[in-house]
Design goal:
Elements (H helix, E strand, L loop, with lengths): L1 E6 L2 E3 L5 E9 L4 E9 L6 E6 L5 E3 L7 E6 L4 E6 L8 E9 L4 E3 L3 E5 L2
Parallel strand pairs: 2-11
Antiparallel strand pairs: 1-3, 3-8, 4-5, 4-9, 5-6, 7-8, 9-10, 9-11
Length: about 120
């Protein structure tokens, strides 16, 4: 059984920062791509950032220069550093990992609220 445990969400003022973490544990063999999606109320889930096994990154058009994704392969953990947060970044953030063979695992989601 594979578990993804997310942490780091919360309430922050506009212009503030948060760092999300997502640790994968259990019977998971060789993680390839890791990433983050988010879903705001009344909207579809959208890709925020991904990082490949080789360290290549890709970001949604709304976040480059403000968000940074990174990973620690020894800990099977992916991070999302979010700076200069805006109210429109408010959403539930979900991490995911892709294991060797293509199986995708999802975290439970963590709420990020940007409000004054």
């Amino acid at each position: 059984q594979v578990q993804l445990v997310e942490s780091g969400g919360g309430l922050v003022q506009p212009g503030g920062s948060l760092r999300l973490s997502c640790a994968a544990s259990g019977s998971i063999f060789r993680i390839t791509t890791m990433g983050w999606y988010r879903q705001a109320p009344g909207k579809q889930r959208e890709l925020v950032a991904i990082i490949t096994g080789g360290g290549s990154t890709n970001y949604a058009d709304s976040v480059p220069g403000r968000f940074a994704i990174s990973r620690d392969n020894a800990k099977n953990t992916v991070y999302l550093q979010m700076n200069s947060l805006k109210p429109e970044d408010t959403a539930v953030y979900y991490c995911y990992v892709v294991a060797w063979g293509g199986t995708v695992y999802w975290g439970q989601g963590t709420q990020v609220t940007v409000s004054s």
